Amino acid sequence: MNYLKRVSALKGIGLFKSISSGYLIFLLSNFIALFLTPFLLKYLTKEQYGFYILCVEVAAWGSVLSLGTPKVLGPLVTMGLSKGNTNRIQYLFNASFWFQLCISLMAIPVFFMLLDRNTPEFSGESSGRFFFITVIALTASLKLLSQQFDEMIKATKKIFISNRIKLILLILNTTLTVFSVLFFGINGLFFSMLLGGVVGVLLQYFKMQVLYPSISVSLHSFRLPYFKAIFAKGVLFTVAGLSGVAILKIDHFVLSKFWGLEMVASLYISLKLLVLSEKLIELFFNNFRPYVASWFVSVETDRIVEYYNIWNVFMVIFSTIVMSFVVLIDRYFVTLWVGDEFYIGNSIVFSYMLFYLTRLSMLPSRILLTSTLSKIGALTVGRLVHAILRVAILIFAVDFFGLHLLPLSNFLLLFFTGLLLQLVLVKRRFMSSRDWPWEMAVSLLLPLSLLLGFVKVDSLPFFLFGVVVVALLFLLTLFYAYRGKLIRLVQVLYKS
């Protein structure tokens, strides 16, 4: 039982350390990214850089091969820790580990085929393409295996430990990348990724063992009922993950097929600031996942609903301010960073902003539902419908509507099959009143209202400036109105 004392030893400061360490890694990694992108473009051609981005994207598709078991393992272990059930955690971990190990080994040829079929040839060092996709396949397989170790660490509410490992890996990978590219070009870039993947798996495993000294890898601890419990929910996460490929990962693939690898590089660079802004906000709120699971086990539904409504409205207003400001400065940022020729255009960036804003508006609902493993089937169906409709739209309409179809189709489909659906699911699962909280209405209508920006695209900067000013005033008003509840929330989290 010693490890149960360890995971509850830090109170209050655990959440602060998780948030602060997360932001430290975020700032450092993105500072490094700002340096690495022009550095890589100096030693690689624009086409090679586009190939590298596409390889990483396609490899990310394979995360669904985990069949969702790590995503289910985390909340179940958190609930086991809350109940002090040591044996249950041992059985849950081994059920996930042995399954994940088999999946990771079988995934290597699958990753290779995915990369081989979905990445085009490129000029220059095309003879090394076989080496590149082999290395990416091995690296992606290692990442699959490491997911469960990371979830075990996060389940202790000590997310800052996971962040500490990421910091070590960030420094190591950056150092390897710089020196490898300097001496070996694109070959060194891919090799450094593989070495970083090996070190990452080892670090996460050994740190997990420190946190859970009573938990061991043992085939005798594999129990079929526990595996079934994880797998049953995991399959739903897998379907959602497969759908996520069409929702999040297909854009670069479509661009490479219809507009070429250089357009892949331009889109990636133009959206860099938007993606970073989304991660910045998401990073903060993801720290609350284990706390929501603990409250749920303690049957504190009223507390969950109260703080969910606060998170909901603050999330959408704050995200609107940040995202609108990013679009206003994005052209200048790209020009200073790598050059104006990489900027893809205001209307395209604004279209993607609507999609990312809708994703952030969904985040409080998604955290609440997934952390408590509630309505997972309905969430999966929503993502599946979104994915099927999007693929159909892109197949039959991309030639006619052009590049704008990629973000706008995603935004509108996500609004109905994601944001609206999740709000309904939260209302039915956690709220007894028939009335809809006004906070939900704001999170639903605000992203849709921003479509007014397309009325006159030439005046888009003035429109976004007005949005920032109005949203900022609204946010300050909310801080004043909710000041008492916000103070109580901080106190509750400190004691959790």
Describe, in plain words, how this protein is organized in 3D.
There is one protein chain. With 496 residues, this protein is mainly α. It has two domains: 1-238, no CATH class; 271-496, no CATH class. Helices cover 83% and strands 0% of the residues. It has helices spanning 2-7, 13-43, 46-61, 69-83, 86-118, 129-154, 159-184, 186-211, 224-258, 261-270, 272-286, 289-297, 301-337, 346-371, 376-401, 405-430, 438-449, 460-481, 483-495. The two termini are 20 Å apart. The model is unreliable at 1-12 (pLDDT under 50).
| Count of distinct structural domains | 2
Q: How far is the first residue's CA from the last residue's CA? A: 20 Å
Rg of Cα set: 23 Å
> What is the count of helical runs?
19
The main β sheet shows up as: none
- Count of extended strands: 0
Spell the H/E element sequence: HHHHHHHHHHHHHHHHHHH
**Average pLDDT score:** 80
How much of the sequence lies in strands comes to under 5%
The residue fraction in helices comes out at over 70%
Oligomer: single chain
Structural class per helix/strand content?
mainly alpha
Dominant shape = globular
Q: Low-confidence runs (pLDDT<50, min 5 residues)?
A: 1-12
